Protein 1
Amino acid sequence: MDNKANQPANDYFCAQTNDFAALFSAEAFYNSDKEIRTITLEELRGKWVVLFFYGSDFTFV
């Protein structure tokens, strides 16, 4: 079975200090422009980045 829930915890990847983040794209809200834009990690390379994710909060419903 390929169900990850049945695998031991040591099979999961856990990021460590100084690990590189995987390249990604995501929608982000820019408060200064009051709009949602797509950002990529590649465009932020060389800058300090804090990725804040909270799935159910800050939704525009």
Protein 2
Amino acid sequence: MAERRSEHLNMGQALNEFIKKNKLEKGMEKVEARDAWVKLMGNGVNNYTTSVEYKDHILYVSLSSSVLRDELSMGKSKIVTMLNEELGKDLVRKLVLR
């Protein structure tokens, strides 16, 4: 049977409890990392982004433009820093551009 509480929780607190209780943190990290990439890179880069995957603190980004991939690879550390600032935690430690 479901556990009931007498205190009131706001929606954010309730969702965070649900995520922790059901061990969904890893899935949420994947979604958050992908969303951060889309938000930070904007339409110019996202038009050439074919896939974004997050696994074990590494963000794998597939790009359809080799020129863009070379350009972004020069600023990998800055991109990682920007992503972590957007996420509000040290989630991405390495960026792999494919």
Protein 3
Amino acid sequence: MDSYREIESLILKYALLIDEGDFVGLGNLFSRGKIVTGETGEFQGSEEVSGMYMSTTRRYDDGTPRTHHVTTNISIKVHGESAESTSYFTVFQGLEDFPLQAIITGKYIDDFTLHEDGWWFSSREMEISQIGDLSRHLLIDLQEI
């Protein structure tokens, strides 16, 4: 697999792991990196990233947040053993008493590093563009932070 596809797979795996409620697996994507948000701060390594999602994201009886993360407009630039990427995200949620809707949109700004065992996130910055009804998704109120 070429570098572009490996990096794209990491970006898409992130969305899949959130939707599956696998916050440990999600944290593992950042075992060599960090997540930075303007709203909640900076989280370095597997444990901090997993902990951030566990403490901020609601999970239902099936263990998932009942969301569907869509990542689009992916642009990847590879520079030898490092790479950068930007992409858009839209998160949808629908429950029995909550009509299907987009609940948040934004942009990911990612950096990657090539190690002996493949590409890894070195950082992910999340910029929020639009906030809808997050009351069924998050355990915190982003508008109060």
Protein 4
Amino acid sequence: MTMSSRSGPAYSVGDDQAPLTLRALPRRVLRAALSAGEPVDGFVLAGRIAVFLLVAALTIPVATANGWSGGLARFFIHAINTPFHEAGHVLFGIFGSFMRVLGGSLNQVLVPLVCLTAFLWRRNGFAAAMMLWWAGDNLVEVAIYVGDAREQELVLLGGVTGAEQPGYHDWNNILGHLQMLQWDRTLASVTRFWGVSFMLVALAWGLYLLADSRKHLKPLS
């Protein structure tokens, strides 16, 4: 009997135990994204539906707000995002003054993306979809900040505006340093576009996984 010169275990396509290679990474990520996790019972599914309905209801008022206090929904979520923004100033401050200022907006977008990656690793696509929505929401919030770079009318932490306290407005400092202040509204529009796109994709993704979860319900014990 002849033996092939290639030895070792054979893996089927999509086998999650196969060695992770760059070529296999997109397929692995897609499989994780389309997996709602382990089969759940009716109570867990009902909780996911409630979360989805809440997020869906918040999408329009949050995505269309022109200020951080633009309605109760925007104000509520801004209060959640602010600690991550402020933490970013501290975390990225080790890379210099420019990154310290940029780090606030950068961190509030990175945190939900890191959470998204963690949930994909755990093959919980629904939770990952909600994290994508949160990342989109933070991009919209950053867009509001960017668009205020010249006027500096937003009330910032401490109850003052950038116009009242020079050097206090992150994006006035960032775009001023880059000599791009005249581009503030354009950059804000692009950032908002991607934020809203993330949110809509997240809703479609989450809805698909909810529908799929209903087919694999675990009976109540």
